[in-house]
Design brief:
This protein is mainly alpha-helical and 170 residues long. The protein has eight helices and no strands.
């Protein structure tokens, strides 16, 4: 059982760092294959690993972690702006809208708590995106951890229990 919990922690941490790994499928599989494992334990382990992994994105967005140079963009000299720059470059409507959102988030950092909590529970908007936005908005680390842990714990405890609930109906 200890090995399964450790493996679940590893998969959840990996899915927090690499978005292509589906921890939801893993949790449902654990609940279906090993019904004796407590759904509360699985929920707690996955929530802890997910929030720990997303803390890296949160701190990077806040500027507390210096990213390596290869992750920074280099400016290329161009005579004609790219299509992306024409839509999102300085002076465009999208750029002004992004600046407006950034000012509002900085002015009211606790507004992000509700969005982050809903994202942790439901998954929409994506949890990775709200983790980065929470860092940009200046949300406190304690608020980030509490809202993420509560939402993720509820989500993954339910997912771990879902195979047993479905089997109880039949």
């Amino acid at each position: 059982m200890f090995g399964l919990v450790g493996l679940t922690f590893g998969v959840a941490l990996g899915s927090a760092l690499i978005p292509f790994i589906s921890v939801e499928a893993w949790v449902v599989g654990v609940g279906a294959r090993w019904p004796g494992v407590s759904c509360w334990l699985v929920g707690l382990v996955v929530a802890t690993a997910q929030v720990l992994g997303k803390l890296l994105y949160f701190y990077a967005a806040r500027g507390d972690i210096k990213l390596p140079n290869w992750l920074h963009r280099t400016k290329k000299e161009r005579t004609k702006p790219s299509k992306l720059a024409r839509w999102f470059g300085p002076g465009t409507r999208m750029h002004r809208w992004g600046d407006w959102i950034h000012v509002k988030c900085k002015k009211h950092p606790n507004w992000m708590a509700g969005t982050h909590a809903v994202s942790a529970l439901v998954g929409v908007p994506p949890f990775m995106a709200t983790s980065v936005l929470a860092g940009l908005a200046g949300m406190s680390t304690l608020m980030f951890i509490v809202t993420g842990m509560v939402g993720r714990f509820a989500r993954f405890s339910f997912l771990a229990a879902s195979p047993a609930m479905v089997m109880a109906w039949f």
